[in-house]
Amino acid sequence: MDFLMFQLIHNSKTPLYEQLYQSIKKAIINGTIEEGIKLPSKRKLAEYLAVSQTTIEFAYSQLVAEGFIVSEPRRGYFVQNLEELAIIEQGIASIVPESTDTSSFSVDLSTGKIDTDSFPFKTWRRYAKDIVNEENGELLQLGHPQGDYLLRQQISSYLFQSRGVKSTPEQIILGSGTEQIMPLIIHLLGEKAVYGFENPGYPLTHHLFFNDSRMSVPIAVDNDGVIVSKLEQSFANVMYVTPSHQFPTGAVLSATRRNQLLAWAYQQDNRYIIEDDYDSEFRYTGKPIPSLQGIDQNERVIYLSTFSKSLMPSLRIAYAVLPKSLILQYKQRFSYYAATVPRMDQHILANFMEDGYFAKHLNRMRKIYKRKLEIITKTILQYHPTVSISGEQAGMHILLTIRTTKTETELVKLAEQADIRIYGLQDYISSNLDEQTFPKLVLGFGGLKMEQVASSIHQLMKALEIKKHRNS
């Protein structure tokens, strides 16, 4: 892999994945990496360059999108013909090969899964049947650019009751997922905005900042959430946070940090906080934590969430609550955009919420996920103190700290060999942090069947070569 031995600068303002992407692209163009050469796997290159696999994935994805490399099923990534690239750059569209990563695992501990067995299929089917009707022919037409008022009204009411979010339906915009709404927010905040994002954090947002060529800086996270003093030392004027259940560490932003973060935003007119409240519905200990938006006195918080965790990832309905000043700008600049969420889906969900079934579903799922977490906690205790849990106050994932001499990469590989999917914390780190004492694994439990929760944990521990504590 000598031809990929690039000098990556960890303390640079340019993200590592962008540095790597630019280096590989330049090497392909100047012939250092020849046509037909197979690039190393994401795992191998990550180990070779001492970076996370997420860094490699983002760089490879951008190269695939621009046609410099191609992903061949079961074979890997290969460098494309330069003559073909020249044609592409002249404006002839190329077809990007579809991802063929459909690998399944007998135990899937990734964070994007939900409990499908508990979904209210009969109720949802009844609402769908009522909507798909000749009497609702107007729903075949384009609706309001921000989404139909009925659903925005239901969301506004729900957010106030459950999260203390202060909004009107007019302040809410709908989109088909965070990846569709975030670019609108990015463009709304202007080209001069510099984004801070949590490190470790949600990889999609880093990718969106990169795709929009926006300056972004990683801000370290500890047990109390994002370290605001680090943010104050940066040039960022927009901070993306997951305060209610930090992804992926599970930390809850402390009251002190919340006040510090809002105070930071109030210091300058152009500062904003993007609050991603992605799984706040599921809190298992203590009183619900109020949203940052609900305690914001100067309208500096943009509130963002989806129905991916609360209902289903495939519904593709996300929403943002914009401050009044920004919603006025949004209407001026994006009023010609068509809503990206099908109107029938909007009305099915609106009616489902209006009749109280959404609240009932959340109450049921909260109990189910809490029970799963209790089983996991009880099972993990058998392996204490080798294994410990953090981030269990809320959400559908936890963080495992493994007291071992093995690395995260080795642990993930052992799990993979046992047909178990799990990710290490390093996969979510954008730049070097203080060296971890022990490896950490991000364990999602949403998709586990109740009767398989304990056995899945035992399978994982066996794969990781961790024995039960003799007193358990």
The amount of helix comes to 25-40%
| Beta-strand residue fraction | 5-15%
Q: Order of strands across the biggest sheet?
A: 5-12-11-10-9-6-7-8
User: What separation lies between the terminal Cα atoms?
Assistant: 47 Å
Structural class, by secondary structure, is: alpha/beta
Average of per-residue pLDDT values:
88
Beta strand count: 17
The profile of the biggest β sheet is: 8 strands, mixed
The tally of helices reads 16
Weakly predicted, low-confidence segments: 86-96, 98-102
Shape: globular
- Rounded to an integer in angstroms, the radius of gyration calculated over CA atoms is 23 Å
Architecture overview:
The protein is of the alpha/beta class. It contains 16 helices and 17 strands. The strands form 4 sheets. Strands 5-12-11-10-9-6-7-8 form an 8-stranded mixed sheet. Helix 11 links the parallel strand 10 and strand 11. Helix 1 (16-29) packs across helix 3 and helix 5 (121-131) crosses helix 13. The radius of gyration is 23 Å and the shape is globular. Mean pLDDT is 88; it is low at 86-96 and 98-102.
